[in-house]
Amino acid sequence: MPGIVPRRRSRMYDDEEDEDISNNEHATQNANKRARLSVNGNTPRHNADMGITSAALLQEHQPGAIVKVTLKDFVTYTAATFYPGPALNMVIGPNGTGKSTLVCAICLGLAASPNNLGRAKEVGEFVKHGASDAYIEIELRGKRGQRNYIVRTHIKRDGNKRTFQINGQASTQKAVTEMARTFSIQIDNLCQFLPQDRVVEFSALSPENLLASTVRAAAPPQMTEWHERLKELRIEQRKAISEQAEAKKTLSELQKKQDQQRVDVERLRERTELIKTINMLEKMRPVAETALLKAEHNEAKEVRHAFRVERDVLKEELAPALAAVNAKMAYLTTVDRAKTSAEKVYERTLAKSDGHVKKMAELKKQITDCEQKRTAETNSEKSTKQDFAKQQNAIRQIEVLMKEQPIEFDLPGMQAQIRDLDRQVIELDDETGALRELMKQRWGDVKDREKRIEDSKVRLENLKTQAGQSETLLKQRAPDAGRLYDFIKTNKERFGTDVYGPPLVECNVSDKAYADAVESLMRDGDVLKAFTAQTQEDYKILNTIVYEELKLTDVSIRVAHKSLDHWRDDRRSKVMTDEQTREFDIDGWALDYMTGPEPVLSMLCSDVQLHSTPVMKRDCDDNKYNKLARTELSKWIAGNSIYTIMRRKEYNAQSAGVRSITAAKWWTTHAVDTSVEADLRDNIGGWQEEWQELKRQLQADKAKQTELVSRRQDNVDEKVCTVLPLSLHTQLMHSKDQTRQRKEREAKSQSCL
After folding, report:
1. What pTM value is reported for the model?
2. Is 286 contained in some domain?
């Protein structure tokens, strides 16, 4: 395919010589305008091939601009060369003529990833069918006073390899990327490079991300720093406004409190006056009490006088009966005295009788002890006579032995034999110690196999539950996240509050009919890799654990700053009221179909707006779409589509997008991975065999240890027999036995006494 040269270059100014003066002046003004667009003010280039000077060539290529693109065996091109102009370049043609292919070539030729194109994932797929290699050569305009950069990219279909050269010298992808960045070429920035397959992703950018990408693409680097500083200042301003509002609220509350306390102060003053009155009355209390007591005293005196008169009358009337009663009382007193004296005599007699009984019991015990002593003495005498006869026999045997020839005593030979026995004992001790260490190591291996078997059995049981299947799926799809999740479960004490794992294992979809809609709102990173902390302190601790201790990279740490009720209230106050919800016939909000810990759901509300995304099973017609677009909604799900509205209030403009929801793959019923279950069962079987073999080896080691101990004891006994002659050893042992028996008899006699 021949190189594409823009038609715009064919415009010539040669005919302007025949035009009138006004037209010449107009051409001069246009030429001056073109000259101002030139970079360095040099004379415009002349196209020698065409023999003309176009208006587009009156300006130079800017540093970093693409001067030339050469393709060979790339997608649909066998060989092609393109010469972009220094100003705006447009590639126009019917579908399928290779416009997007040129864009892909520029992207890959400048060392960008195929992921930025939204097409094939491997670079080998861009090699033309039937060819094994593809070449891309891009010439970039150099900086002032420097030559142009020629970047040559070689793509091999086999192995999906890509190599680079800069100005004929081998280079790396990183070097090409750094060279492109020096010219502010940002292929990963959607505001600078937007392929057609990523238009939906561009429309989904938030206003903040869109502004940041635009600044990074169009402004100098310091603008990005100013933008970040501006955001920090805005945060500080919001904080100051919030503090001011809190201070006003506190002042208002204090004023209300003061107004409420004013009534209490008045009551306190009234109470003080009442207390003064009470104190004065209390001081007057004795006067009133004295008057009352005096009246009561006079009444009591009168009653006493009446009682005395009545008593005297009764004494006179009851004098005879009182004399009889006094006589009976005197007789009763005499009887009580006699009874008391008899009781004392009885108690003394009983005490003497008890003393005689105790004395008789002591005498009986003494008689029994004497009988036992007599019997012991008799037995001791018999035993002493027997021992005396045995001692005489032993003396006679020793005298006979003394008369016999003494045993020959080979001292050097016995010492050598003793040293040999000592060496054998040391060797046996060393072998026994090594065997103990080996047994200790094997016992540790046994415990390790038991722990592995137990852990694998627990994992095998977990595969039967939904939570276990989710955890297994997490470890397969995101190994770093699975490792961090296990660490958090076993180290909860390191955090001040609960730290939650990814939504895949913490949450679930309550109604599976809405699983596709709910999952389409989230990215894989939100489901698999997002860990949620509840406080800033736990967030810092988790960061330290992830990046310094565990050295993990493929995880995302987030903080749930606000409660779940905050997001629900925020939706009602800012997005849509309950009346509007019923008016639009909304089935529910995405948050209503999610279950799980509140901090995790709060995090998802903050990141993917679950609380403010309505879900409707029915499709959205034009009338309903227009009504919803006039609300504050930024996203909603209707039927099998997700509708997105991006509003720019400062420009009074908005953009819309729609995409299809995808099938659920996380919160849905999946069959258990049979390969994982089979691996676990194989591991358990292998570890059980190793456990049995280790137990068998331990039993053999114990038997060997018993044998070594027995051999050592034999060597020690042989050493004793070598040191002491057998006959002398026998005599000594016999003498020791006799001495021991005699001491036992003496001790027994002493115990009887």
Report:
1. 0.36
2. yes
